[in-house]
Amino acid sequence: MSGFSKAILLTLWFGLLLAVPREVRSQNFDAKSIMRAQQRGESGSLYGGNPFEQTDEENPDAEPQDTTKKERKIRKPLESYFFSDSVRSLPNFKWHVRRDYNRVEIADMDTTLTDYRIDYPFYREDVGDLAQGALGQTSLPLNYFRRPQFFDFSFASPYYAYIYDMENVPFYNTKKPMIRLSYAESGQKRYREENFGIMHAQNISPTTGFNVDYKARGTRGQYVWSRTKNHNLAVAFNHTGRRYSVHAGYYNNHIEQQENGGVVGKWAIADTTFQMPSGVPMKLSDAEAENLYRNNAFFVTQSYGIPLQRLTESDFSMANLSAVYVGHSFEYSSWSKVYTDQRASYIDERGHRDEAGNFVPDTLMYYQNWYINPLETRDSLYERNISNRFFVQAQPWDRNGVVGTIDAGVGLDLHTYSQFELNDYMTGKYTKVNKTSYFVYGSVGGKIKKYVDWDANFKFFPSGYRGGDMTLGAHLALTGFLRGHPLILEGRFTMDRRSPSYWQENLFSNHYMWSAPLNKENETRFEVKFSVPDFAFEAGAWQGVVTDKIYYGPDSHVAQSDGNVSLTSVYARKDFRLGGLHLDNRVLLQWSTDQEVIPVPLLSAYLSYYYEFWVVRNVLRLQIGLDGHYHTRYYAPGYNPALSVYYNQREVEVGNYPYVDAFVMGKWKRMRIFLKYQHVNKGLFGNGEYFSAAGYPLNPGMFKIGISWGFYD
After folding, report:
1. Which pairing describes strands 228-240 and 244-259: parallel, antiparallel, or unpaired?
2. What average pLDDT does the structure give for the chain?
């Protein structure tokens, strides 16, 4: 290029700069600046106003503008410190709120084919649970270290996979209103299992939204007297602003279950063929035993951020500033349980053998004691908890710093318990017992870029009810990268000293009665886990030591060990993929030094083998395969309907039976559908003893169909 040409271009460039207003020349054309300009009512144009545009004064012939029309209000974006940029960029996302701390936990949205066919929620985690057998009924994780520990109303813990509580009520942020409908059913109408769910989530603004989740799951019963209804409702509201945030919710759990007490003997499943499962004799079918649970609760947790540095318009959120947050959490929850039955015996056709070796029937009673009424039972229990927490969270530098947050709080729980007692014969009213527990807690945590994530926490009850209870915990995660793939090594430590629940020390019912103090349980746990998410690999180990373990013995009465019980678990998961063939494997090994106190199977496994492919590219995707559950023989816990607890027993071993389902599952745009035959191997292979909990058989073979459809805007 000649010198003359360069001179012409330079002249044009300077002329353009002089023609453009100074304000525009100094603009930073990034998304934040444009957004701030729009909020201030300035032009959102990258090049400023048009200098040649005529105003009304310059052009008297122009038509007058409509001044009555309101300007469209520019919505503020989601600026909450709770969410990272990667989360905010998602079209929809879900989270749960923490009860004690000013934090949220991001959860997965259930929109993919993964695990959709698994309609029993207790089979979705790890290697699954031992269970009563049908949808909506109780279960207990096979992995000891996953078993729930409910201090408040422990009678609800067997339904942990279904019920809502403050920390699992979902909150959503959606760019468009979203509705998801799902329905699944199985079996003949009179024995049908039904699984219905509906969810609606909508944002009023980018920072404010509400949602409603309702689930109805249950069975009419393959076996006699096993009808179950499990209804769960959650209504939630959230506002996650730049400084102020609030999460509020109401949830309701309503469960009705007919209790058949399990089969009269193992022979009724393993050695005898009945025309219909409803013909299998059950222990409490004539007693018409039934449980009814009701739970109503609501909560509000809120916080306000006070920046310690000047908060400017260029600061998109407070996550990168020094700040202090103050907040309060309130929860009201009431639970009730009503158990009813009638005095009735059952007949075990193979009760014992005579001298000739022939079976002789025995007439037996399920319950040995009838303390209040010798003919019928109506045990009513009630528990209420009003909880308040006041907390402060300091953010010394930024939320993702080496020391990201320092938390401190105090809490006050007001407990009310009610049951029938002997002196209530005189008053005609149930006695109420009130107890108060207060505690302090705190935590500290941080990150070193994307390589280190650590935290530590404590909780202590200084005196009064639960006085001396304490929890200490620590967590460390190290992340490295191999050719761009993250390798994560995690370690976790917890030490817990906990009081027995009120009901473990005080119970007066028609069949069971006790009133005795128990020692505190002490438990120490270590966990190590290594995972490579991009290759669907995970391996981990737990080591735990429990002192003075509280459990329910063979007679279903509360018992307490007087020594230490050590537990070791090793878990591995690897999903292999060969083209469209998927071989998903989850395996768990467990050892307990005292199987009479904490019984666990040596080996448990969940295997899912299927072939996945496109039927129509980017339109219809299909999976065809098998799911299987298996564990070795051990003295599995039994279930007591009157107490709603799993108890240890040493009469019947359960296991060495593979339980296999065959399925076809597809996704067509926003719709998911599955066809499944549950227990496809019944009568084909296995020892015929398809029990999970002692005395409770799993469902026999049946066909299932399910559909889920999402609607947006």
Report:
1. antiparallel
2. 89
DSSP letter at 436 equals E
CB 473 within 8 A of CB 454: no
| Long-range contacts (CB closer than 8 Å, 24 or more residues apart) made by 278-281 | 278/191, 278/221, 278/222, 278/223, 278/224, 279/224, 280/223, 280/224, 280/697, 281/224, 281/346, 281/347, 281/349
The predicted pLDDT at position 429 comes to 79
Q: CA-to-CA distance for 415 and 331, rounded, in angstroms?
A: 12
The secondary structure of 527-596 as a DSSP string is EEEEEEGGGTEEEEEEEEEEES-EEE-TTS-EEE-SSEEEEEEEEEEEEEEETTEEEEEEEEEEEES-TT
- Distance, in Å, from the CA atom of 296 to the CA atom of 285, rounded to the nearest integer, reads 30
**C-alpha distances in angstroms, 562 versus 232, 521, 594?**
39, 10, 12
The answer, as to whether pTM is greater than 0.85, is yes
User: Per residue in 676-691, pLDDT tens?
Assistant: 999 999 988 888 899 9
The CA distance from 238 to 278, in Å, is 47
At 119 the three-state DSSP class reads coil
Cβ atoms of residues 403 and 447 within 8 Å = no
- How confident is the model at residue 40, as a pLDDT? 45
Quote the Cα angle for 210-175-209, to 5°: 15
CA-CA distance, 471 to 465, in Å (whole number)?
Answer: 16
If you count them, how many residues does the chain have? 713
Please answer whether residues 259 and 225 qualify as being in contact, where contact means their C-beta atoms are separated by less than 8 angstroms: yes
- At 692, the amino acid letter reads S
Cα-flanking dihedrals φ and ψ of residue 644, to 5°? 55, 45
- Any idea which residue has 């009513």 for tokens? 380
H helix or E strand, kind and range, residue 516: none
In 3D, which of 710, 700, 707, 678 has the Cα closest to residue 120?
A: 678
476, 491 contact by CB (below 8 A): yes
Which residue in 227, 201, 224, 220 sits closest to 291, CA to CA? 227
For the chain, the distance separating the N- and C-terminal CA atoms, rounded to the nearest angstrom, is: 57
- Residue 151 CA to its chain's centroid (Å): 17
Tracing tokens 């103050």 back to the chain, one arrives at: 326
CB 181 within 8 A of CB 198: yes
Q: What is the share, in percent, of the chain residues with pLDDT greater than 70?
A: 89
Q: What does the block give as tokens for 491?
A: 């370690």
Please, which pLDDT band fits residue 72 given cuts at 50, 70 and 90? low
Task: Report the amino acid identity of residue 95.
Answer: W
User: 504: how many CB neighbours lie within 10 A of its CB?
Assistant: 19
Mean pLDDT along residues 133-138: 95
User: How far apart (Å, rounded) are the C-alpha atoms in residues 181 and 712?
Assistant: 12
pLDDT at residue 414, rounded to an integer: 97
What band does 273 get if pLDDT is binned at 50, 70 and 90?
A: confident
Contact 681, 629 (CB under 8 A): no
Distance CA 499, CA 203 (A): 42
Angle, CA of 221, 222 and 224, to the nearest 5°:
70
Lowest-confidence segment of 26-40, 156-170, 303-317, 328-342 by average pLDDT: 26-40
Report CA-CA distances (Å) from 107 to 64, 87, 173, 264, 452.
Answer: 53, 11, 12, 43, 21
Q: Which amino acid is at 169?
A: V
How many angstroms separate the Cα of 445 from the Cα of each of 109, 233, 454, 458?
27, 34, 5, 12
CB 73 within 8 A of CB 233: no
